[in-house]
Amino acid sequence: MENVDASEQITRHIKELQDWRGKMLGRLRKVIRAAAPDLVEEWKWNTPVWSQAGNVVAAGAFQNHVKVNFFKGASLSDPKGLFNAGLNAKVSRAIDIYKDDTLNEAAFSELVRAAVALSGTRPPTAKKKQLKPRAK
Check: CATH 3.40.50.300 for 6-119? Predict the structure, then answer.
Protein backbone atom coordinates (compact mmCIF):
# COMPACT_ATOMS: atom_id res chain seq x y z
CA MET A 1 0.00 0.00 0.00
CA GLU A 2 1.23 3.49 -0.79
CA ASN A 3 2.42 5.73 2.02
CA VAL A 4 -0.54 7.94 2.93
CA ASP A 5 -0.61 10.21 5.97
CA ALA A 6 -3.29 9.62 8.60
CA SER A 7 -5.43 12.66 7.72
CA GLU A 8 -5.50 11.63 4.06
CA GLN A 9 -6.36 8.06 5.06
CA ILE A 10 -9.26 9.31 7.20
CA THR A 11 -10.53 11.51 4.37
CA ARG A 12 -10.34 8.56 1.97
CA HIS A 13 -12.13 6.29 4.46
CA ILE A 14 -14.97 8.80 4.90
CA LYS A 15 -15.39 9.15 1.12
CA GLU A 16 -15.40 5.36 0.64
CA LEU A 17 -18.35 5.06 3.02
CA GLN A 18 -20.98 6.26 0.58
CA ASP A 19 -23.89 6.15 2.99
CA TRP A 20 -24.99 7.85 6.20
CA ARG A 21 -22.00 6.40 8.09
CA GLY A 22 -19.53 8.38 5.98
CA LYS A 23 -21.52 11.56 6.51
CA MET A 24 -21.65 10.89 10.26
CA LEU A 25 -17.90 10.21 10.46
CA GLY A 26 -17.25 13.43 8.54
CA ARG A 27 -19.49 15.33 10.94
CA LEU A 28 -17.86 13.75 14.00
CA ARG A 29 -14.42 14.61 12.63
CA LYS A 30 -15.45 18.23 12.15
CA VAL A 31 -16.85 18.49 15.69
CA ILE A 32 -13.77 16.79 17.21
CA ARG A 33 -11.40 19.11 15.35
CA ALA A 34 -13.39 22.20 16.35
CA ALA A 35 -13.59 21.13 19.99
CA ALA A 36 -9.91 20.23 20.24
CA PRO A 37 -7.83 21.58 17.35
CA ASP A 38 -4.55 20.38 18.89
CA LEU A 39 -5.50 16.71 18.65
CA VAL A 40 -3.39 14.68 16.23
CA GLU A 41 -5.20 12.57 13.66
CA GLU A 42 -3.92 9.02 13.45
CA TRP A 43 -4.94 5.87 11.57
CA LYS A 44 -4.84 2.89 13.95
CA TRP A 45 -6.62 -0.45 13.88
CA ASN A 46 -8.15 0.53 10.52
CA THR A 47 -10.01 3.41 12.12
CA PRO A 48 -9.60 7.16 12.72
CA VAL A 49 -8.06 7.98 16.10
CA TRP A 50 -7.41 11.39 17.64
CA SER A 51 -4.65 11.61 20.21
CA GLN A 52 -2.71 13.93 22.47
CA ALA A 53 -0.36 12.46 25.07
CA GLY A 54 -2.10 9.15 24.33
CA ASN A 55 -5.23 7.99 22.55
CA VAL A 56 -8.23 10.22 23.25
CA VAL A 57 -11.07 9.19 20.93
CA ALA A 58 -11.63 6.83 17.99
CA ALA A 59 -14.53 6.63 15.54
CA GLY A 60 -15.34 3.54 13.52
CA ALA A 61 -18.01 2.59 11.03
CA PHE A 62 -19.72 -0.74 11.56
CA GLN A 63 -22.43 -2.43 9.48
CA ASN A 64 -25.36 -0.64 11.11
CA HIS A 65 -23.83 2.02 13.37
CA VAL A 66 -20.90 4.34 14.01
CA LYS A 67 -19.03 3.82 17.28
CA VAL A 68 -17.18 6.62 19.02
CA ASN A 69 -14.84 5.27 21.68
CA PHE A 70 -13.43 7.48 24.42
CA PHE A 71 -10.34 5.69 25.68
CA LYS A 72 -10.66 7.08 29.23
CA GLY A 73 -14.42 7.51 29.11
CA ALA A 74 -15.06 5.83 32.46
CA SER A 75 -13.30 8.79 34.10
CA LEU A 76 -15.41 11.40 32.30
CA SER A 77 -18.54 13.07 33.56
CA ASP A 78 -21.41 12.52 31.11
CA PRO A 79 -24.22 14.78 32.35
CA LYS A 80 -26.11 14.60 29.03
CA GLY A 81 -26.01 10.78 28.97
CA LEU A 82 -24.27 10.37 25.61
CA PHE A 83 -22.44 7.18 26.54
CA ASN A 84 -24.60 4.22 25.60
CA ALA A 85 -22.08 1.42 24.99
CA GLY A 86 -19.23 -0.20 26.86
CA LEU A 87 -20.70 0.97 30.14
CA ASN A 88 -19.22 -1.98 32.03
CA ALA A 89 -15.68 -1.45 30.74
CA LYS A 90 -13.17 -0.44 33.39
CA VAL A 91 -11.58 2.40 31.41
CA SER A 92 -13.30 3.22 28.12
CA ARG A 93 -16.84 4.28 27.21
CA ALA A 94 -18.49 4.54 23.82
CA ILE A 95 -21.33 6.16 21.94
CA ASP A 96 -23.10 4.03 19.35
CA ILE A 97 -24.84 6.16 16.73
CA TYR A 98 -27.45 4.61 14.46
CA LYS A 99 -28.85 5.90 11.16
CA ASP A 100 -31.67 8.07 12.48
CA ASP A 101 -30.03 9.15 15.75
CA THR A 102 -29.48 12.82 16.49
CA LEU A 103 -26.10 13.83 17.90
CA ASN A 104 -26.05 16.49 20.60
CA GLU A 105 -22.99 18.30 19.18
CA ALA A 106 -22.61 20.69 22.11
CA ALA A 107 -22.56 17.84 24.64
CA PHE A 108 -20.27 15.79 22.38
CA SER A 109 -17.85 18.74 22.14
CA GLU A 110 -17.82 18.99 25.93
CA LEU A 111 -16.95 15.30 26.19
CA VAL A 112 -14.12 15.71 23.67
CA ARG A 113 -12.67 18.69 25.56
CA ALA A 114 -12.94 16.82 28.88
CA ALA A 115 -11.24 13.77 27.33
CA VAL A 116 -8.40 15.96 26.04
CA ALA A 117 -7.96 17.52 29.47
CA LEU A 118 -7.80 14.03 30.97
CA SER A 119 -5.50 12.59 28.29
CA GLY A 120 -2.32 14.03 29.75
CA THR A 121 -2.93 12.50 33.15
CA ARG A 122 -1.51 9.14 34.02
CA PRO A 123 -2.04 7.13 37.18
CA PRO A 124 0.81 7.67 39.63
CA THR A 125 3.50 5.04 39.46
CA ALA A 126 5.55 3.83 42.36
CA LYS A 127 8.99 5.39 42.43
CA LYS A 128 11.80 2.94 42.11
CA LYS A 129 14.03 2.76 45.12
CA GLN A 130 17.49 3.96 44.22
CA LEU A 131 20.20 1.59 45.21
CA LYS A 132 23.23 2.98 46.97
CA PRO A 133 26.59 2.02 45.52
CA ARG A 134 28.32 -0.73 47.45
CA ALA A 135 31.32 0.21 49.49
CA LYS A 136 34.51 -1.48 48.36
Answer: no
